[in-house]
Amino acid sequence: MTDPILINLGGFVPLSTVDWRGRSVCVIFFRGCPVRCWYCHNPGIQGGTDMVSADEVLRMVRESSLLISGVIFSGGEATMQPKALFYLAEEVKKMGLSTGLHTNGVFPEVISRLIDNKLLDLIALDSKPEWNLNTVKGKERALGSDVKKSLAICTKGFHEGRLPQFQVVLTLFPGCIEQVSLVIPEIAEDVDLVLQQGTYIGISSLTLSDLKAIADQFGRTVRIRTREEGEIRYEGTRDSGDAGIR
Questions:
Q1: How many other CB atoms sit within 10 Å of the CB of residue 83?
Q2: Contact between 84 and 54 (Cβ < 8 Å)
Q3: How far is Cα 224 from Cα 91, in angstroms, rounded to an integer?
Q4: Do the Cβ atoms of 173 and 204 come closer than 8 Å?
Q5: Residues in a beta bridge with 80
Q6: Residues 86, 215: Cα–Cα separation, whole Å
Q7: pTM for the complete prediction?
């Protein structure tokens, strides 16, 4: 008898309509993350231990299956637990549900295996623009290199049809334009690009107009997410000014 596969579980949401555009899904949160982003929206599950049988998580998915069409693996960082992630993705696929991954991209080898095995229908890559600056050193510089590898792997899989949906998410704060200018040119025009309003106590958030102005500088279509307006599709236009975002 084989030992049960365990997941260090950070939480489970049985029904969400905001984590995968156009779908109702459940969300499995994996506990643990090698990155400590200061603006993380789930800091409580960056560490700690809560080991649960993966089969128990699958039972919760089945209980939601009449209301959902897919499952999102999120975190923390799901790719930090590849054994549990692969098992859950395979079993969810057997249920006839679609699978999506929200990831920071710091484990490109895991992402590559998931795509090669056609275990994912969506990847949302949360790229960190600040990691691309020449002034970044040490751990963040190394992690930035891994994210670039993940970007290349996901883009290739998307273009080859092995990854049906791919989006890059940039969480932005005031003063970000130098960082963004190093990231956006690396993102293929046919990849879904999301400019997301960053929020943190004591920092003024970029407005919808600010985020539109960022998109205008690069002349490409984006999706913009803010707390006030939700998510919109925006057709960027070149040379419209920066609206004070620098």
A1: 11
A2: yes
A3: 33
A4: no
A5: none
A6: 36
A7: 0.91
**Letter for the amino acid at 50?**
D
Q: In this structure, which amino acid lies at residue 213?
A: A
Structural domains in the chain, sorted by start: 6-172 (3.20.20.70), 175-246 (no CATH)
- Tell me: the pLDDT tens digits for 197-222? 999 888 999 999 999 999 999 888 99
Which residue type sits at 178?
A: E
Question: Are the beta carbons of 20 and 39 closer than 8 angstroms?
Answer: no
Per-residue pLDDT tens digits for 147-175: 999 999 999 999 999 999 999 999 999 98
